[in-house]
């Protein structure tokens, strides 16, 4: 079983693009499982990850395609949390969403994606922004 960690923020289009990238993996409906991670930087109301629309949308898309899912929530610096959860769960790949940038900013990734790419000890899949 190939285990992928999807690091999801609040952007629904980016979450769907990430889910679609996982769905497009070979034999995703039988050989891939996905952990959907949302890291809260500030959560005074005590919300759960499943209350985040982007997490629900990604989970629905993956489950509709037959991909086994599991939701993980954490608090802290998103890049650090992503790397920690990837190690704790010994995932095979981390999937992060890219952002649309101006022409001058296209050479740069967002700070979370860039940090994960530079510090991960496993493959990182960067998806498009999903038409933000």
Query: Would you give the CATH topology?
Result: Rossmann fold
Q: Output the strand order for the largest sheet.
A: 3-2-1-4-5
> How many domains comprise the coordinates?
1
CATH top level is: Alpha Beta
Strand content: 15-25%
Mean pLDDT across every amino acid position: 88
* CATH homologous superfamily identity: HUPs
- Structural class designation: alpha/beta
Q: Care to count the β-strands?
A: 5
Please state the CA-atom Rg, rounded to the nearest Å: 14 Å
Instruction: Provide the succession of SSEs.
Output: EHHEHEHEHE
Contiguous helical run count: 5
Measured as a percent range, the helix fraction is: 25-40%
- The best one-word shape is globular
Report the sheet with the most strands, covering strand number, pairing sense and barrel closure: 5 strands, parallel
How would the blueprint of this fold be written?
Elements: E1 2-7, H1 12-23, H2 28-31, E2 32-40, H3 53-64, E3 68-75, H4 78-88, E4 93-97, H5 111-119, E5 124-127
Parallel strand pairs: 1-2, 1-4, 2-3, 4-5
Helix pairs in contact: 1-3, 4-5
InterPro entries: Rossmann-like_a/b/a_fold, Universal_stress_UspA, UspA
Organism: Haladaptatus litoreus
Pfam family, one: Usp
Q: Can you offer a commentary on this structure?
A:
This protein is α/β, with parallel strands linked by helices. The chain has a single domain (2-127), classed as HUPs (Rossmann fold), CATH 3.40.50.620. Helices cover 36% and strands 24% of the residues. It contains 5 helices and 5 strands. Strands 3-2-1-4-5 form a 5-stranded parallel sheet, sandwiched between helices. Strand 4, helix 5 (111-119) and strand 5 form a beta-alpha-beta unit. It is globular, with a radius of gyration of 14 Å. The model has no long low-confidence stretch (mean pLDDT 88). Belongs to the universal stress protein A family. This is Universal stress protein family protein.
């Amino acid at each position: 079983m190939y285990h992928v960690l999807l690091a999801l923020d609040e952007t629904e289009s980016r979450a769907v693009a990430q889910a679609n990238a996982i769905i497009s993996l070979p034999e995703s409906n039988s050989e891939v499982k996905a952990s959907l991670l949302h890291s809260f930087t500030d959560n005074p109301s005590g919300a759960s990850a499943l209350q985040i629309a982007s997490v629900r949308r990604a989970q629905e898309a993956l489950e509709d395609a037959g991909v086994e899912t599991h939701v993980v929530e954490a608090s802290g610096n998103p890049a650090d949390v992503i790397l920690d959860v990837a190690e704790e769960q010994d995932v095979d790949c981390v999937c992060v969403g890219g952002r649309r940038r101006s022409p001058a900013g296209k050479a740069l990734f967002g700070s979370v994606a860039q940090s994960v790419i530079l510090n991960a000890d496993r493959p990182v899949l960067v998806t498009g922004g999903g038409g933000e």
